[in-house]
Amino acid sequence: MKRFAAIMLSALLLSGPAIAAAGELQPYEERAETPALDLSDLGGRRHTLGNYRGQVVLVNFWASWCPPCLAEMPSMQRLATALQDRPFRLLAVNVRESSSKVWKFKKLLNVTFTTLLDSQGEAAEAWNVQIYPTSYLIDADGRMRYVAYGPVDWDSDDVIQRIESLLPGAKAVHQARSD
Fold first, then answer.
1. What does the pLDDT look like over 10-58, one tens digit per residue?
2. Cis peptide before 133 (omega within 30 of 0)
């Protein structure tokens, strides 16, 4: 495992900046309803999007064999930490891998956000995930607002501003500042 971890960390360090520039958070234009999400986390607890109504949710589909997925995870952890006291949740959906493998990568990358298991890939299919990572930003009303195909620098100022604009009460705060 140590040799594998060293190889993975080397790959991340060598490809990190180039990978981080690849993805872009863009408005989600389709009018389709947000697909259901009903999966268990690593502790066996069930999570649905309905559990998070009233909060902004980042749903990120990833796999351990995907270097860009792993490269973006530290910025996802920084984002989750920065917004931990706000109505924001991050759900990382691992696709078609064992829980033991997912645990190893969470430990290796030192991430603590909620990780869900899509063991059969059914959620990824329902969400039409074609590339990894793919991420969706869901507003407090449960609507898809943004999508990213590829890795994103999740703790960048631009991304944090977009997320904050979706937080409940954000329009009132923004309007009060502009008055």
1. 444 444 443 334 588 999 988 778 999 999 999 999 999 999 999 999 9
2. yes
CATH class of 21-169: alpha beta
Domain residue spans of the chain: 21-169
Q: Can you tell me which residue has the tokens 């009460």?
A: 169
Nearest one of 18, 6, 21 to 158, comparing CA atoms: 21
Cα–Cα–Cα angle for 6, 69, 138, rounded to 5 degrees: 150
- B/e letters for 13-43, b = 16+ CB within 10 Å, e = fewer, are eebbeebbeebebeebeeeeebeebebebee
Q: Token pair for residue 75?
A: 């910025």
- 94 vs 102: CA distance, rounded Å: 7
pTM: 0.84
